[in-house]
Protein 1
Amino acid sequence: MIRVGVNGYGVIGRRVADAISLQPDMVLEGIVKVKADYKALVAVKKNYNLYAIDEKSLKSFFEAGLNPKGMLKDLLREVDVIVDASPEGIGAQNNRIYKEFDKKVIFEGGEEHELTGLSFVAQCNFDVAKGKKSLRVVSCNTTALCRVLDALDKAFKIKRARAVIARRAADPDEISKGPIDAVVLDPVNLPSHHGPDVQTVLPHIDIFTMALKVPTTHMHLHSLIISVREKVNEDDVIDVLKGTTRVILVNSKNGIKSTAHIMDFARELGRIRYDLYEVAVWADSIRVVEDEIYFYMGVHQEAIVIPENIDAIRALIGKYSKEESIKLTNKTLGIIQ
Amino acid sequence: MIRVGVNGYGVIGRRVADAISLQPDMVLEGIVKVKADYKALVAVKKNYNLYAIDEKSLKSFFEAGLNPKGMLKDLLREVDVIVDASPEGIGAQNNRIYKEFDKKVIFEGGEEHELTGLSFVAQCNFDVAKGKKSLRVVSCNTTALCRVLDALDKAFKIKRARAVIARRAADPDEISKGPIDAVVLDPVNLPSHHGPDVQTVLPHIDIFTMALKVPTTHMHLHSLIISVREKVNEDDVIDVLKGTTRVILVNSKNGIKSTAHIMDFARELGRIRYDLYEVAVWADSIRVVEDEIYFYMGVHQEAIVIPENIDAIRALIGKYSKEESIKLTNKTLGIIQ
């Protein structure tokens, strides 16, 4: 069994912890949290071992009757792999202590590529990561772009990829973030970071991205314009995406015309927290004109990187093939094929 | 003096009426309205002659003490040009009565191109419209795209233009429209109508557009990807846009980073209803990579077509040059050069 700890229990950490606990070859040794909030209460109800980030949080856990098992260092002694799901930039600060304990580490997309030199998307570079000491699972938008672009590039040879990303401005629990009634350029200066970030995984792809923040809480919405070298039609594109792991096709004929509809579909599926691990591409938006492929896709920002985190754990351990790991992760998470 | 009537007093009609009343060579003979609402009250306070669309509305105007001057037919007897600012599709129905009275007519972008066979943007085809019987002022997004693409095409020869339009979902007074928390594909099937609509004015431009509805009330936000034949850099693009009428450059260095900031800027300018007649291009978003120009621009959906309506009136009358008309319209509306 691979012994795993999760440092940080926010948007990503709590989902990774749940996913680990579903794996037949992994044991969740514990989670590290800062506050004794409702998320800590639910974690304890799930029998997750709770560790504190510092003395102050340890004290607050005792006061809340949460029976903490110790501090981050205590957890590190118990694990083979630690998943750092700390807020952006804090992972890099934590790296010193991980090195001190000589642990394998997974960082998230809020950290810089340079921290580990290895940016990871399972289908693209699982084998490169095998047996490595650490890696970075790229952010939600980058993960989605890599899945789709890697598949289309292998099938049709991408000449250039252009994407405009309408980002959800806040997650559903982020009550202090805006905007309420504006489109915010994110950032004004071009390109957005997503294009260069895709190139940390797929360095040969010519990509340029633009990004906006819009007043929604569910999903990022990508408008894609991809020029390819091979001659293709709409059905070719659909066939390739159908055969790509962690990509699903949705259709307005079934009533899915917005990000809200996709999330309501995920609620119907009965997933925990209505998480959609798959990129959702609108099949009936796919249009090919000459060498250009156009389509829309939705990305559930809270969930899409969860399967990549599970595969990343197996990649670092080094004893699994890419196909074995992806298959097992997909099965345990109920990912639609 | 050109005698003008305005049929319809919603988003566009009330703005066109105000703009007509500012012209030294025009007289607003009256407006046609359906309801005795607050907009009717304000119109009467402005001493606009109020006409009713039917017997029922005539009665309601009398009951509200609004002293209506008559019905649409009574207004038509008094005018040289009628501007039809009815809801989408109603203009086409009204065309029969305009023909009966043998009047020159301006329709708005909600009507089909085929209704008049002439889709109008002042800077692009004023001369084509000179002396014609009727024309259609294209919609807000199409107007904005035509202004910018016409200028860039004349300067650099456009190879292909691609645009993703994040549309405001509702105007500020439209309290029943959604979405609240979703990005809606508008429509799912590609392309959106904007590309073909641009080609009704600029048939030679290779354009493909995608469009989303987002939960905002101010401005449409365009992400543009334009490939050109001439070799250009960022400064060349800025110079061309600076020299283009009804296009202004904004900059995040001055604190303008979102559509809300542009609208607040328009409020500072003291414009009636904070109307921005100009397309606002973010100067510091302009980026050129090889043959592609990228930038963002904001379009005030309620206001941008107002100067085109005024120029369209003069074009139909046929006694003005394009330059004379645009100059006079810009001056009277306080458009920034």
Protein 2
Amino acid sequence: MKAVIITIGDEILIGQITDTNSGYIAKSLDKIGIEVFEMLSIADDKQAILNAFDRCQNQVDLVLITGGLGPTKDDITKKTFCNYFDDELVMNKSVLAHVTKLIEQHYKRPISQINKEQGLVPSKATVLHNDLGTAPGMWMQKENTVFISLPGVPYEMKYIMESAVLPKLISEFDRPFIIHKTILTYGVGESLLAEKIENWENNLPNFIKLAYLPNPGRVRLRLSARGKNKMILEEAINDNIASLSEILGDIIAGYDDTETLEFVLGKLLTERGKTLATAESCTGGKIAQVITSIPGSSKYFDGSIVCYQEKIKVAVVGVQKATIEKHSVVSAEVAKEMAIGVQKIMKSDYAISVTGNAGPTTDKTDKEVGVVFIAISGPEGVIAQEFNFGQPREKVIDRAVNKSLEMLRSMILKKG
Amino acid sequence: MKAVIITIGDEILIGQITDTNSGYIAKSLDKIGIEVFEMLSIADDKQAILNAFDRCQNQVDLVLITGGLGPTKDDITKKTFCNYFDDELVMNKSVLAHVTKLIEQHYKRPISQINKEQGLVPSKATVLHNDLGTAPGMWMQKENTVFISLPGVPYEMKYIMESAVLPKLISEFDRPFIIHKTILTYGVGESLLAEKIENWENNLPNFIKLAYLPNPGRVRLRLSARGKNKMILEEAINDNIASLSEILGDIIAGYDDTETLEFVLGKLLTERGKTLATAESCTGGKIAQVITSIPGSSKYFDGSIVCYQEKIKVAVVGVQKATIEKHSVVSAEVAKEMAIGVQKIMKSDYAISVTGNAGPTTDKTDKEVGVVFIAISGPEGVIAQEFNFGQPREKVIDRAVNKSLEMLRSMILKKG
């Protein structure tokens, strides 16, 4: 079963917004065994939409479309649907009632003419209820292809996917099994990794595919198996993961795609009943933000002091002025005092600190752009390490965040 | 002049990574007057790549491809290029020398066979130097269409775009003018906004297009003009922006796409020589992270205390235990004490604080998921406001971040 995902919107084609809907939809379809054959972004243009529909018609089983359902003049998806399906818009009473309720509840005002028109849907469409917004989803079919239209607002699209689209797809279509397993590795580059596992890779059965997904400081190895017999797939994947694990040893940090480093760390801290605090200079709160992106992080995360200024490092975190004067504010010594300081203030078991130059300029420090010191303080002492993460700013920050979590993980594991 | 952007990679089609390259490339091309006609994501599959190339051939002037250039077996773009252009791979000495240097400098080891092969490029390709990585870019032409292949690693792709692709496109092609202007509005929803400006919208000349770009709590209005005469375009855009500004009045927060709220705030604080600190509970450091994403923010941002735990709110930020007991930790009173507390600790002119339930569960508080209190403390006192940002977690956090910046902006502007 094959699908195409189409996102409609000029704002995507001029690069004003990044399309995150396609990725979410792809992931959801992949989980239920539907292969995404292509993702396509096109303009808010009737002819472009019709051409894309034509191209997909009878070539794939499923076309998922987001965008162009808003209340304003630049939103033309509904009208184009009518055109393609030789249909007309009719007022849907239950959609109209829902829109009226939403507007009255949230905006405390009567419904306007523009909002009323959101109750119009093509007469042949099955309406997919949108509890979180005013634009409903629509399900239509032409010959062998199902066309599903969803709003472009990510959380509304997600709501309709979960509550209506996926259940309906599962109940109405036969699908093969797809199994992915990902191994998260740290500290070894892509090409060295490839050499290490070359023999193993050459012996993979042909229904298993291997992909390398490199990120700053981490490489994920993804195995994908596709077929009709779930048991055979699972067995083959598990066998190959086991033999790969033996080859890779301790550079493995986790085994699942949801097992990001912050997730793995959360599990480690929760299991051990330990807590964490951070003191961040050049990462500007990003370590805290990554850690608190995990639901349940309040169990082990005490908090962070973002000390962007030298005076805050001294007055709030407790770094000695003399240390800064002697070693520079970007130094191992200051990183250590930051980690120990925040650990003491928050009464945490572990603390991470980062001080460095993310760029684009070096400000008043003596270190070049990209130089970062990370310190980790734990029950048995504090360590600090120097890095040069190069440029640009975003890469320096991301690598510092990843590296600091990796260092903390090592320290916790060494404690046993 | 029309372009198609193609991203190659199974990891995109199964939703494992979000493609941010296409957006960046689109923005860069748009700036120099090249229209992106379509974005396409396809699998690491020879036939899929060849089909996409065939479809673009002589239909558009330019095809920009990212991905599939790594050193491992799943990277097949170079071989497929040879296939499509009836070419063969030859060792490029300067690429090989660069790869050797990079590996020796960064990894302190001799170059491996796998790395050596990165020096191979199709004989007909113009090599685009990649200073930041081992995979070079390639520029090839077939009849009326130029094909450019770039590595998938975002900062490497960006480097080659800036240093080689854009300059070469500008020097070798005639291009029309495209002008975009964006007005950033706050606090009025998309459909009310549409009603407010309906007459104005109906009177737009046909070479100017209007788009509504809604986000939680903010709507951007984008005007795009396209044509041959830059002066006429600029005059028409400026006239229409002026008349629109009159209609919208004080719900306008900025006039350019780069003028995000955090950027506008940075300008305001810098101009006035004022400083800012934040105390964050449910936003987990995201306000600090958004503020410090602006280069130069160290001038006005003192720092943040992320106080994820009740005990940290009391011990570090200085919230009274009695206040929490009397009013709940999610309350206007606690938000106010957090703002005043961090303002005092960091000796800042302004402070933002947030306390709320981002979900998915209410933890131990008495307020429902989505309830957030934001306080702003300034030279003339402190205010707090209650919101219900609904669900899910990511939306609650984003709306709280936006709303807090908006409230601070209002307070600063009222001071004059």
